[in-house]
Structures are given as C-alpha cells and as structure tokens.
Here is the input.
Amino acid sequence: MDVNLDNIAIILKNPKFAGNVGSVARCAKNMGISRLIVIGGNDLDGEELRKMATHAAKDVVDGIRYYETLDEALAGFQWVVGTTARHGWGRGPVISPREMAESVVGLSEKNNIAVLFGPEDRGLTNNDLRFCQMIVTIPTAGFKSLNLAQAAMVVCYEIFVAQKEEDTGFVQKLADIKDVEAMYVQLKKTLMDIEFLLPDNPDYWMMHIRRLLSRTKLFAREVKIIRGICRQIERYGERRKTTPP
Here is the structure.
C-alpha cells in the first residue's frame, strides 16, 4: 500500500522568512505533496516566496491556504504530526521521520494528515504540540538545528517513499481534531469538577492524559462516548447537590 499524498498537508506556523516558505513549497512539490498551509504569514514577501519556490512549484504556492490560528488550520484534519528538535518532559516521546511515515501510510488512505513545523527561531511550543498525536525529531550527528526547508525535505521524503507491506483491509476515518479538542476541554472540566485535577496545575496531568489517549486512534464514535461519560458524571454531580442526604 502506498501513502496517499493527496491527504497529506504541510503546515508552517508563523514562518519568519518568505524564502523559507518558498523553499518548503519546492520540497513538498519534489515529493508529491501539493497542500501547504501557512499560519500568520499574510505579510510575507510574495516575490521572494515565489522566487525560492521556482516555477516548478507555482501550483503549490498558488494553492497556499492562510489562517490566523492553529485551531482554525487544523479543523479539517484527523491526525497531526508535530516536529521538534528540542526534547523535554513537556514535549513527550519522539519518533524518527521513518517511523512516523510507516505509521501514516495506512492512515492516509481515509484521513487528512497534517505535518506541523514551527517558526525558524524557536520551533513549536509545548502548547502547539498538544494538538499532535505524533512528535518527530530528525536524528543528527550532533548539531541539532536544521534549516526549515531541510527539515521539511527529510520528512516529506520519508512520507513519499513509505509503503505498507500488507494491506490490513478496511481503514476507518478518525475523529476530526476539532472534535477531539472539544472532548479534551470537556474532559478537563469534568476532571476538575470531581477534583481529580487540582486547580493549581491541571494542564500538567491533562498533558499525560493526552499522551495516553493519543496512543490510540480515536474514532468519532469513541470521542462521543467519552463526552457522553463526562456529561453523565456532570449530571450525577448536579443531582447529588440537589438531593437531600
């Protein structure tokens, strides 16, 4: 099974240089990926962008979709891959681009997959990475910092050549990211209401809950079940408040 490149998109969050966006467009075109999304880049120099993309990637540049926020950009996706050169307890376990590509082959058949890159100077924040089901780091010999276009080319190449040896049959569409995020908002509120999460630092434990659930591939029905459980817990709590002892 080959990866479905039509369902893969590269997302650049707050890029600082138009030339880098153009170079990423060229890399994506080289590897058969035509969907490029830019967050907060409406003021980039269009001439410089097109110059670095070259005429060969004109269709990718013409098709760039611009958004103001990450939430808006990810609304139509079911799986998000984040990229980072920095490690730490707040950034979660990381995998290589090859491991990531092998995993998304089957998912790409019926799911929109976003590969997310951060600004050139500081990359993605911990808050950005909370949207991601996978976090990728490109192994290097020592100097970890890669140019944005270099990183994009490595990741795009691994996706392009990825194949799944066996067809596992029916592939189901996963839940949309916007629905998953709404579930996490509701889950956080419920867990705070029952005092499982302490009000002084709820996001610390929510990060671990996100990592736990991201190991599974959540379908729309499963998201609805979790939200239904939260609603029932909230209703039970309200009844306890109004029922005399």
Notes: Residues 104 and 126 are 22 Å apart (CA to CA). Residues 5-161 form a domain with the Alpha/beta knot fold (CATH 3.40.1280.10). DSSP finds ten helices and six strands in the chain. The two ends are 61 Å apart (CA to CA).
